[in-house]
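Lecture 7, part 2: worked example. A protein chain together with nicotinamide-adenine-dinucleotide.
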Amino acid sequence: MAVLVTGGLGYIGSHTCVELMNTGTEIVVVDNLYNCKKSSYDRIKALTGKDFKFYECDIRDAEGLSKIFENENIGSVIHFAGLKAVGESVQKPLEYFDNNVNGTLVLLDVMRKHGCKKIVFSSSATVYGMNNVSPLTENMEVGGVTNPYGRTKYMIECILKDLYVSDNEWSICLLRYFNPIGAHKSGTMGEDPNGIPNNLMPYITQVAIGKRECLTVHGNDYDTPDGTGVRDYIHVVDLALGHLKAVGKVEGENGLFIYNLGTGIGYSVLDVVKAFEKASGKEIPYVIGPRRSGDLATCYSNAEKALNELGWKAERGIDEMCEDSWRWQSQNPDGYPD
Ligand code: NAD
Ligand code: WQD
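Predicted complex, written out as structure tokens:
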């Protein structure tokens, strides 16, 4: 039986495909190439030395998805496909709800029709909203989200919980990612954002490579040790390995499972800048700007549940995250080739 990976050519999906294939798992990938390049497919094959089926298909295309389920022997799904830019979601809420929420509904309906009831879903720490205090634990009340992107994740979590209540033959794992950074050790796969990066690490790496002049630190008057925002950065390969455990979980038993995937450690913006400078030998000029609307002072996980129940724990520290992000950026100044 194969694992269907939606959004499998994207940043987290591609790293997860490599780890799945490295353990001999058969995969089938669906991606509409909206936010990735086809060359990501070639890089995954080159790294693993193995081929796999790729379908260029939108998850909202029920007919297209059905054909994949008819052609392939799909046992479970890892569902990464989605739009993820917080700022853009404020400008384009309908597109975000359609792509993320409607796309998931279509996928779930097709899965049900084909008797496939095992899914691992890419949720986000954003579902904890503004009102919970870190370290965040899975039993905290979710909601209170401040932007359409976050609401799509919250709504999909609600849909999946309701689905399990309606039919407990489903096995559903909600993975709440914290802040994924880093890249594959080889330097051949990494994060390749379009346009001006919104997230901290790709912005820093583009400053280091000379594409941007200087980093703007969004506020230094938070109630944190150095005044800048604190986050739980996690190496994308650790995150990918968490998915292997989650697939094992949904394949092993029915249920609705929720896990944080984070390190449990918070680093400030300036901590990350310093770690990156050490890893790359490049100076990162920065200026202090105003706070970014919607940002929290502090957000980090309690990562114990995933350790206790999945036997998973993030192994790679901030220095390695920075080294690997830099290797990817310096070897691929323009990201993936067209
Ligand atoms: P990404 O944009 O690199 O990957 C998503 C992939 O999904 C892309 O390759 C894109 O082309 C594809 N896709 C989007 N809509 C599609 C559709 N309708 N049909 C088929 N394919 C579609 O993003 P990522 O960083 O790899 O994130 C993967 C998932 O994890 C997303 O759901 C994202 O919301 C979630 N997530 C990401 C982060 C993060 O910081 N990167 C944090 C928490 C959660
Ligand atoms: C990290 C820190 C910024 C850029 C976002 C989404 C979240 C999740 C992960 C998907 C903050 C600061 C950033 C810059 C800066 N994605 N910063 N200058 O906001 O924690 O989370 O990505 O689910 O939903 O909201 O990540 O990397 O944007 O910011 O000072 O140019 O870096 O203010 O403190 P964030 P980020």
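The pocket of WQD (ligand 2) is lined by residues 84, 86, 124, 126, 150, 179, 198-200, 203, 215-218, 229, 231, 269, 292, 295 (CB under 6 Å). The first helix runs from residue 11 to 22. Keep this in mind for problem set question 3.
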